[in-house]
Structure formats: C-alpha cells, structure tokens
C-alpha cells in the first residue's frame, strides 16, 4: 500500500534515558548512595514512520500482533546487544537479545529527520530524574531544512516510575527490589508533521497518554506504534471550507484547513501575544521582525516560546520570515546566538542574564513579563512602525474581546467534553479571524504605497522615489525595511502580481476617491483636499495618502463638463469601540463543513486498512451525492479527499476521475505533482483503460501541457524572480535604451511620449542621450514634483479650488495685470497666488481660453517679455510679465488648453493627463538644457497643440452628443492593447485585453476594481452565468469560470479540443440553466450549468465556427462561410450561405444578430460594409440589405431597444465607426466616430448605455448614451 501523500504524520519519536544508565542510578538510589539525582543525556529510543502496513504482510500474523516483521522495517528501536536483558513474553518464555533485534536490523528513518539534535530539543532543560511524578508537560518545535522548508513537532514529557521501566527484568540473577522509595524518569513522545497542527497534535498526545499510563512496559512500544499508525492514516484537508475530524478516544480531534492555497495553516491561539504584550510593545516586536533584527524570546515555559513566535510571524503574513528560526534552543545550543546573521530564537528565562551579558546587538523579549529591551541598553533605539498604521492597529486591537470567560456568562456547565471543546474552538476561530484581519490591515497600511513605485514590465522598484515620499519620522524605518530579505520576497510577489491576502485587502480598502480620480490627475501630486492647512507633512500621512488610480472614471455620466471630484473623507471611523474590531476588513464568511473520518481499524493489518479506506471512500461518496451542485467549492474538496484516498488504496483510475472532477470545479487546489505520480505509476493495462475514457485522456494530455508550460516558465525563472532598483544610467543611450530607462524611472510609460522626449533632449546633437544630461533632467523632474508637494495654500485660497485639483507648477513672483504674485497651474485652471497676504485671483479655466500669445510689456525704456491670455466672457486680457519664463509658460498653457479641448470633445479625460505630462516634461527639458535651443526642444513635446494647429480634430455633433465618457484599460501599459471582449453584468463591466487578462470596472464610476488573469492566451468570448459566475472562452481551448464574489478563477472546463469562440445561455424545459459553447473546429457542447457536466455534444462541418446562439428551441451557429440553424441534437435544419455578391470575395461572416420577435436574422461580414437581413423562415437569400456609408468591414452587432448597433471600420480614415440602424425601417439613424481603430466589441448596459471597444491602435472603451 502506498504511503499517504499529504498525511498528518511524518514520524513519531520516543526520547528518554538509556536503560543501562537508569539501572545504575536506580541501584545507587536504592542503596541511598546518591546525594542528588543527576541530569542524564537523552537518547532516541524509538522512531515510527509510515508506511506501517504492506500488502505482503504474512496472513498468519493478521490475528496476532498488529504489526508483522515487514511492518517493523519502518520502525527504529534503540537496542544494545551487549547488555540488554532478555524480554519476558506473555507466555513466560524469554527471548535473547540477538533474536529480538533481528527484526529491526534493517532500520529505516525518514531522511529529513535529524535524530542528533532531537533529544536535546525534546528535553531542552535536560533530562532530570525525580522522586515524585510531575505533571505532563507539552512544548512545540519547528525544524527548518537547508531549503527553508519547515517541519513541526509537538512534544509531551511524561513521567514513569523507573521500576515499571525495568519491569520484569533480572540483573545478576536477582529481581529488582521495588519496595524502597520510587524513582521517576521522564519520557518524551514527539509527533512530527509537515503541517503546524499544534493544537490537534497536542490533543492526539493527550489521548495517547490515557493509553500509556496503565500500560505495562512490554506494551509500551506497541501502544506508541499503533498510535503512530493511526495518525498515518489521517489525510490532511485541502485548502478551503472543508475540515477533517477523527476520534482518538476520549477526544474528537479537529484538523482545520488553510483558507486558500497561499494562506498559512492556523491551529494555534493567535491572541496569546495580545494577552502578554501591551499594544505598543507588540508593535515594537513586529517592527524588529520587519527590520530583521537578531531577536531572542525568553520564557519559563518552553511551550510559550514557539506559540508566541509562530503567532507573531502569522501577524506579518503574507510577508514571510526568511532568516534562521529556532524558537526553542536547548541549554547546549546557546552558541547559536553568536550567529552573525539576523535570526529569531527562543531560550529559557534562566539564561536571560547570561545571554544579555555575553552577546551583542540582540533584541531580548521577555515573553512572561511582556518586556522588550536590547542587550546593549534597556530601551529599544530602533525605528518604530509608521505612526498612522500603528494608531489604526491599536484602535482596532482595543476592541478585541480576548477572554473566553465572557462568552460563558450566560451558559450552564457543560457535561460533554467534546461539545465544550467545539464551543471553545468556534470562539477561537472567530477571534483568530479578527486578529488576522487587523494584523493584515497593519501590513497593508505600512506597505500600501509600494505598488505605486513598481514598473512591472521591467521589474523595477523605484526605491529612491518611494523613500522620498515617506513621512520624515518614518524614513529610517523604511530605509531599514527596504534592505531586508522579507521585503525583497514581498516585492517579488507584488511584481508577479500575486493575488494574495495583501493584494485583496489593499484593493478592497483603497480609498474610493483614489479609484475614482479622473485621468487628468497626476499620481504623484497632492490633491487640494489632501493638503492640510499645515502643509506637506500632514498631506503625506500614509493613512490619508491616496494611491495611484487604476482606471479612468467619471462617477456620473450625466455630470457637466466642469465636474468636480467627491470630497475625500477620512477612512477611520469615528468610534471604533462601537463596532466589530475588524469592521470593513471582513470578507464574506464561507460555511465550513467538517468531514468525520471513520473509526480506525482495530488491528492495523493490510486488509483491515483497505476496508478503512473503502469506508472513507464510501462516506465521501455519500457526502458528494448530498452536496448541491451550486456548492462547487465544497464538491471540489470532497473529490480531492476521495482522490487522495483512492491513490493510497491503489485505485488509480478512480483517483484520476476524482482529480478530473476536481480540476473542473476548482483548479486552485489541483495537486498536479500527485496526479503526475499517479499517471506515471499506471500499469500498461490501466493506461490503456485511461486512454479509452475521454475524461481521463483529456486530463492526462492537459497535465502534459501544463508541465511543458511550467518548464518553459521555469526556464525564465531568473527573470521571473529578478528585482531591480532603479539606477541612473552610466553610459550614452540610444532610443531603445532611453525608452527603457524612462519607463523604469516611473516618469512616463507611453512610448510615443518618450520618443518625443528623446527628440527634445537630442535637438542639435547626435541621437543619443548622455548620462549627465539624463541625471540633470531626472533631478529637475523630481525637484519640481517636490516643490509642488510643498505648496501650502491658506484656507482663503483653497476654498476656491476643487478638492480633486493639484498644483503642478508655480511661476516666480511676477507683475501681472491683476496684481503681483505667482501664477499657479493646476489640471483645470490658472490662478494668481497674490503676494503679501496670500489671496486667490482666478486667471482662467483652460476650456475658457480664446487666445494665448507672447507679447511684451513696456518698462522704462525696455520691453519685458509677457504672456497674454484672452478669456471667454472677459473684455480685458490677462497679462503677466513672466520675463525669461514667458516662452515656456506659453508652450505649457497652449498644450493644456489643447488637451482640455480634446478631452471635452472626445469625453476622454486621458487627453488632459497626457497634456499635463507633456507640459511638465517641457518644464524639465527647458531646465535641463539651459541653452538657446531649449524652447525649441520643449516645443517637440507640444503634441496636442500641434494636432490642434495642423489637423483640427473636430468631433461631429452627433458623436459629441452621444458620447459620454471613455475608459482606457491600457492605462498602466507602455502601449495600447486591443479590447477583445466586453460584457456587462449588473453593476460591472468586464473587459478582456491583452492575453488572458480580464479587467472589471465598477459601472457606477467606471473605475477599475479587479483584475483577473486566466491562462496565457487571447480571450474570445464572455458570458454571465447565474449571479455569481462569468464564463470566459479562450484560444487555449479552455473555458475559465470566474467567481463574481471572490473575483478569482478556480474552475475550468477543458472538454474542447480547439479554441473556444462562442458562449450562449438558456433555460430548458425543466427550468434548468443550460449553457452552449462552440470551438473553432466546429464542436458544440451543451453544459448543465449546475453540475458543469457536458449533457451532449456534436460537431458541425464549417470553416471556423465563430459563435452560437439559442432561439426558440434551436441553435444558430455562425461560421466564416455560412450560418447554420441546427436542432439541439446537432442535426442541421437550415444553412445560410454568403450572399451571391460576396461569394468568391474575401468577405466572411463576422457576427449575427437574432430578432425572434420579428423573425429576422441580421448578419455582417468582416470585409463588407453591408448589413444583410434574412427571414428566419426563408434562408435562401437576404431579403434586405443596408449599405453602410464609408465602411469597409463590420465586426460586431447588438440590439438595444429598437435599434441595432454595428461596429466597423471606415473606408477613408480606417478609423472605427459605429452605425445605429432602426429595426423597423432598416435605415441608418446615426454614424458615430469615437475610435482611432476598428470597433472590435459592443455591449449594452441595461439599454441605457452602449459600450464599444477598439483595436490596439486605439485600445479604448467608449460609453455612448442610448436615445
């Protein structure tokens, strides 16, 4: 029988004093020759490790001992031939030493188990004999191998009388005299597991002691072996909502599961540090861990050391401690504390003074007294956790109810110990969840802004810029943390976009205003609402700092053009004591199920164990049948456990079927390595059977493809793990190198803008930028940013400015026609900040400008260069004597004016952001060049002003009236990506861009809320199924299922053999939801939505099947060369061919639209500017054609109200066009021009808006009002 993968037990080790030493000391004790009892050196006496049962066990021994000689091979028993006394068997016979040891000569010990150090760790205070029995004592161990993998141990020390240890033994022909005073020796039983089941294993050992206390020494070994064998039969639950329990009399032992694949397993009481430390001290300890100091914990109780250390490391999740970690150091291991690296270790409190005196630069934490100090001083002189994050943590932690007794006030005395334990466990689970949420919020608040300084494409973290934006008081803390391994790993996960608890909470708690900031706002400049009256220091408080927005947004599409942002309110609640401590942090609670394992078989022989596994498979089958199809996550976990048990029972094909079901329902917990092992171990006959089962054949081929993809990714592993800190260049850069350097610096990502910047910096020179020039340019850019952040406006000024506005540029103090002061530039307006008593004088909003020009003002006999602005609605012009700054301000204001006009015309706020970026780059270019050509060079960046002058981009009136807003899903990318698919579900817009990327926008604000990655191929179609699923069809032949609640994809349908091109939904006669999918080679599959099973499938003969639709009991399937109406069983009813005029040409069908109420079918072709309208009952030819003016091809078509919207591409301009047709008269009502590339996708939002997506030249989404 195979060893249970993912089993609870790794090994069970018994440690104690050697019998010969005990005998000698006992004799001296009986003779009263001992002044005091000595400390003995502990030794490993027994090791028991799975597997315990083999198929070739001798049948004659099944009724007798539980273990045959074959079973004994995996056990190690400490024996010494030369002085071992014969053992007395139950029948009175004796066996000599050599015979007894013959069965254990072939000793086998788990390869990862270090037996040398284990005795010291089991008795960290030494093995001490006593005259009286002592209480049982538990403590916990953590072992770390060279690769950083951790194994966990739970140790119980219990005392037995030395007489019973030597029971029945004869020495020098005399029996031992037990009439005198007794002597007691401790034994340690250590249970080792790959998983940190501290509470569960402690319960198991408590049950073991119930059996050991009355047991004779002769039964001692067998009792522990049987206990170990039982634990080896226990499977570990997979991550998720299914836990496992089993009975070890007298207790029910409970094994909780991990919350998800990346979360830690928690089986300890997380509130223990909060009972011991004040909140301030606790934060000091966490700060030391984040800075990777050399920490030593001290306690008089060995158990506390590991429990406290483990709890604190869990507080820092998902950050993981990377340094040496030994929470329990035995007395003989104190030299470990001399290690020069950072570490976390634990010692007995008796060593406190010794350690403090003899070692330097240690942080000493007294767990018992809740005190932290350093070895060089009583006070800790290390940077503290940032104040805002610390205050939030302490306020929430004060609300925690840490005492279980309060829960019991209204309850009576329980009489069922397991019911009482279950009640306590439920309370502890709730408290642990609250503590996890509060601790995670602390980590998020500390590192929230890291995301804003990452360049994912080049894997660069701009640490210098990140540090520059920290609070001065927090700067030292961040400088230390940024150099640690723990932060490096965290940074790597952020660059890899790991969807862990940090990223989920960071997204969920991100200030809504941060998500909704319009595209005209710069990510690194403070908003007026953020600038407090005291200036910059308050602005940069991490609690209030807004992160970079992720998507374009205008909260209300009906808002006028001069919309204002929503005032930003503090995210901290007014009274934390009146609420749940983790309010606003909790995710929806999932219902947890517990699977109870069958009772363990009495004699643990092969066929009994097989029956035990059969019972478990049967119980899991019943659980699967009793689980509703909607509970897919729970079903997946039952299949996981059953697949696990079938694997161990050598039912390989049954195991593979379970894993196939698991793969379809929750691929996140799919155990690919285990399945690979099962597939590799298939005998030839079973392999042939697997190939005859389509489901298993698909699973095996899918597994191979995944492995090949994983090998390819591993080949790029160095790049996947690499992290660079941004550094200024050290050599001359050509265009390609310059683009990469600018993108890494975080100044701008858009390649077109960078190309123009390159042209500006290389005016009059060779086409390369030198390191000194770039350094000056970069420095000026950052200095200008810093100056803008230091702007301090009084209330009398800021009340005139919208909360969402930022000051980006201030002139020097100049004379103007409206007074003396500094001209301030925001993204909306120019205003004068008057000198003396600061005052506000409105100069102009960009959209109101009528003329901007350079002039000159007379001063004595001189003419001083000035800037003149003519503003709509004002008679007098505004003139400012900007002197040498005039030409630069002229360029900047014109660019902002042009950008504002384009943003208003196209309803696209990104034009304003681009204009703002261009203006700021002009400023930095002029500052860095300092030559006569500086202004000419800066003019290279006047992109929108040049467009306005050279090619006036007037938006047609119809388009301007219908267009409401634009979204740029490629905002964070270096170049636009095509919008492949659009889907609207209530309140959300789903967008497919790039390969495997799905972006989800909030439909009330059009701001990005989530990003999901599904596969590595282009996505072709999306479908909303039920209220909680979105199905996504991919080029890699997989249908990915995304949960709308969790926003994760953990289910996949892998039955198609070619790329999935279409999805449709309907209810059948039994009111069951049925989904249809089609793939390019002509396959159509019918799915039961509740079970995700294929009800039937068929194949059509066609040239690339594009889409499938359900209508009045039949299916309509569109391919490139024809449209087919088929019955649900797949038989063909009608076939529509390309119209005669288009046959032989390059035209192919691209999309169809069914209007069943009119019995019409509308079709469009990819290379034809014509809409064909067919009668459903007469499919010989279209009865009406609508020619679309100036159109060369159509790609999508939808119905909204009584209109049909067609997306295509224009003939003359090759830009995207949308045609709106009437369904009654079949006439074109409107032509809309909203994209610079073909319109590739259309969808309707509740018939109020239509959303259109364009190809990669444009890459934007337009939102249109439906009349």
Automatic annotation (TrEMBL):
InterPro entries: cDENN_dom (IPR001194), dDENN_dom (IPR005112), DENN_C (IPR043153), DENN_Domain_GEFs (IPR051696), TPR_DENND3 (IPR057977), Tripartite_DENN (IPR037516), WD40/YVTN_repeat-like_dom_sf (IPR015943), WD40_repeat_dom_sf (IPR036322). It comes from the Eukaryota. Keywords: Guanine-nucleotide releasing factor, WD repeat. PROSITE patterns: DENN, WD_REPEATS_2, WD_REPEATS_REGION. Residues 92-104, 531-541, 555-573 have a biased composition (Polar residues). Residues 79-104, 501-582 are annotated as: Disordered. This is DENN domain-containing protein 3. The gene is dennd3a.
């Amino acid at each position: 029988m195979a060893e249970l993968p993912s089993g609870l037990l790794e090994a069970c080790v018994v440690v104690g004093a050697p019998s010969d030493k005990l005998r000698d000391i006992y004799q001296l004790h009986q003779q009263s020759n001992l002044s005091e009892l000595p400390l003995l050196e502990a030794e490993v006496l027994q090791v028991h490790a799975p597997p315990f049962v083999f198929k070739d066990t001798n049948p004659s021994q099944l009724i007798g001992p539980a273990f045959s000689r074959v079973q004994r091979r995996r056990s190690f028993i400490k024996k010494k031939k030369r002085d071992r006394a014969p053992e007395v068997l139950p029948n009175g016979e004796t066996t000599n030493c050599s015979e007894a040891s013959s069965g254990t000569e072939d000793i086998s010990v788990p390869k990862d188990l270090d037996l040398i150090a284990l005795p010291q760790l089991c008795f960290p205070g030494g093995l001490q004999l006593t005259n009286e029995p002592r209480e049982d004592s538990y403590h916990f161990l953590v072992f770390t191998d060279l690769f950083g993998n951790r194994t966990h141990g739970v140790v119980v020390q219990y005392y037995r009388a030395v007489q019973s240890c030597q029971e029945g033994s004869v020495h020098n022909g005399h029996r031992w005299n037990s009439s005198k005073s007794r002597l007691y020796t401790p034994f340690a039983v250590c249970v080792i597991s790959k998983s940190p089941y501290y509470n569960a294993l402690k319960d198991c050992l408590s049950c073991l002691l119930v059996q050991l206390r009355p047991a004779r020494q002769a039964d001692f070994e067998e009792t522990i072996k049987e206990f170990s064998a039982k634990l080896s039969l226990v499977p570990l639950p997979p991550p998720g909502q299914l836990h496992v329990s089993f009975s070890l009399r007298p207790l029910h032992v409970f094994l909780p599961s991990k919350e998800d694949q990346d979360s830690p397993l928690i089986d300890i009481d997380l509130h223990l540090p909060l009972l011991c430390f004040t909140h301030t001290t606790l934060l000091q300890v966490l700060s030391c861990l984040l800075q990777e100091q050399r920490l030593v914990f001290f306690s008089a109780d060995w158990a506390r050391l590991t429990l406290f250390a483990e709890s604190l490391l869990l507080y820092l999740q998902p950050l993981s401690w990377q340094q040496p970690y030994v929470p329990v150091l035995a007395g003989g291991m104190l030299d470990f504390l001399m290690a020069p690296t950072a570490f976390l270790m634990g010692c007995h409190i008796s060593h406190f003074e010794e350690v403090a005196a003899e070692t330097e630069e240690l942080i000493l934490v007294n767990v018992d007294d809740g005190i932290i100090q350093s070895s060089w001083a009583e006070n800790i002189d290390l940077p503290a956790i940032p104040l805002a994050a610390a205050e939030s943590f302490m306020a929430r932690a004060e609300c925690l109810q840490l005492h279980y007794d309060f829960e019991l006030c209204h309850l009576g005395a329980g009489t069922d110990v397991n019911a009482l334990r279950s009640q306590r466990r439920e309370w502890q689970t709730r408290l642990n969840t609250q503590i996890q949420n509060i601790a995670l919020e602390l980590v998020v608040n500390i590192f929230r802004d890291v995301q804003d300084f990452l360049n994912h494409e080049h894997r660069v973290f701009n640490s210098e810029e990140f540090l520059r934006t920290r609070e001065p008081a927090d700067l030292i803390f961040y400088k230390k943390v940024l150099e640690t391994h723990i932060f490096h790993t965290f940074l790597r996960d952020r660059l890899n976009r790991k969807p862990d608890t940090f990223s989920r909470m960071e997204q969920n708690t991100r200030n809504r205003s941060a998500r909704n900031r319009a595209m005209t706002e710069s990510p690194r400049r403070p908003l007026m609402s953020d600038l407090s009256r005291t200036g910059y220091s308050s602005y940069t408080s991490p609690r209030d700092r807004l992160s970079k927005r992720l998507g374009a947004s205008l909260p209300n599409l009906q808002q006028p053009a001069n919309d204002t942002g929503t005032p930003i309110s503090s995210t901290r609640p007014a009274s934390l004591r009146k609420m749940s401590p983790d309010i606003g942090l909790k995710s929806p609670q999932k219902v947890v199920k517990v699977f109870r394992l069958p009772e363990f078989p009495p004699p643990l022989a092969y066929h009994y164990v097989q029956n035990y596994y059969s019972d478990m498979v049967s119980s899991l089958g019943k659980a699967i049948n009793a689980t509703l199809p909607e509970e897919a996550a729970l079903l997946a976990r039952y299949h996981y456990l059953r697949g696990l048990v079938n694997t161990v029972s050598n039912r390989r094909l049954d195991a593979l079927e379970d894993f196939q079901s698991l793969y379809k329902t929750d691929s996140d917990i799919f155990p690919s390595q285990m399945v690979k092992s099962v597939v590799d171990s298939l005998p030839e006959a079973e392999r042939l059977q697997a190939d005859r089962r389509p489901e298993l054949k698909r699973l095996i081929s899918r597994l191979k493809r995944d492995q090949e993809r994983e090998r390819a990714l591993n080949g790029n592993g160095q790049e996947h793990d690499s992290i660079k800190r941004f550094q200024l260049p050290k050599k001359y850069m050509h265009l390609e190198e310059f683009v990469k350097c600018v993108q890494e610096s975080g100044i701008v990502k858009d390649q077109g803008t960078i190309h123009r910047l390159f042209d500006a910096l290389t005016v009059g020179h060779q086409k390369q930028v030198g390191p000194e020039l770039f350094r000056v340019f970069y420095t000026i850019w950052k200095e200008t940013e810093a100056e803008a952040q230091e702007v301090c406006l009084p209330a009398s000024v800021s009340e005139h400015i919208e909360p969402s506005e930022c000051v980006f540029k201030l002139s020097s103090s100049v004379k103007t026609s409206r007074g003396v002061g500094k001209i301030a530039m925001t993204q909306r307006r120019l205003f004068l900040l008057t000198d003396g008593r600061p005052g506000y004088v409105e100069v102009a909003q960009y959209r109101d400008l009528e003329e901007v020009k350079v002039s000159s003002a007379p001063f004595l006999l001189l003419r001083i260069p000035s800037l003149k602005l003519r503003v709509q609605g004002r008679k007098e012009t505004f003139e400012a004597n900007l002197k040498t700054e005039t030409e630069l301000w002229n360029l900047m204001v014109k660019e902002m004016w042009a950008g504002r006009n384009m943003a208003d015309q196209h309803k696209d706020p990104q034009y304003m952001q681009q204009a703002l970026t261009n203006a700021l780059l002009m400023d930095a270019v002029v500052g860095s060049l300092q030559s006569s050509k500086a202004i000419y060079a800066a003019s290279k960046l006047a992109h929108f002003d040049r467009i306005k002058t050279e090619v006036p981009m007037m938006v047609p009136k119809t388009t301007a009236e219908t267009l409401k807003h634009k979204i740029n899903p490629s905002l964070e990318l270096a170049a636009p990506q095509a919008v492949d698919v659009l889907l609207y579900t209530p309140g959300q817009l789903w967008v497919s861009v790039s390969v495997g990327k799905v972006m989800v926008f909030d439909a009330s604000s059009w701001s990005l809320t989530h990003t999901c990655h599904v596969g590595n191929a282009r996505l072709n179609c999306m479908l909303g199924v039920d209220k909680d699923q979105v199905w996504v069809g991919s080029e890699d032949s997989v249908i990915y299922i995304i949960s709308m609640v969790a926003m994760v994809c953990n289910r996949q349908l892998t039955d198609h053999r070619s790329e999935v091109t279409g999805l449709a939904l309907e209810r059948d006669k039994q009111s069951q939801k049925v989904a249809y999918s089609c793939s390019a080679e002509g396959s159509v599959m019918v799915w039961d939505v509740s079970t995700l099973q294929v009800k039937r499938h068929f194949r059509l003969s066609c040239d690339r099947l594009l889409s499938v639709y359900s209508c009045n009991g039949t299916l309509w399937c569109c391919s490139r060369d024809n449209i087919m109406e088929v019955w649900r069983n797949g038989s063909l009813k009608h076939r529509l061919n390309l119209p005669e005029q288009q046959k032989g040409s390059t035209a192919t069908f691209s999309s169809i639209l069914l209007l069943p109420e009119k019995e019409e079918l509308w079709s469009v072709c990819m290379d034809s500017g014509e809409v064909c309208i067919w009668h459903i009952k007469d499919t010989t030819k279209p009865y009406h054609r609508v020619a679309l003016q100036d159109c060369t091809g159509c790609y999508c078509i939808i119905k909204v109200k009584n209109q049909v919207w067609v997306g295509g591409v224009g003939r003359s301009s090759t830009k995207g066009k949308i045609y709106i047709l009437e369904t009654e008269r079949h006439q074109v009502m409107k032509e809309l021009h909203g994209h610079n590339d073909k319109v590739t996708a259309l969808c309707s939002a509740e018939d109020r808006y239509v959303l259109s997506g364009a190809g990669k030249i444009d890459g934007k989404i337009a939102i249109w009002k439906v009349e």
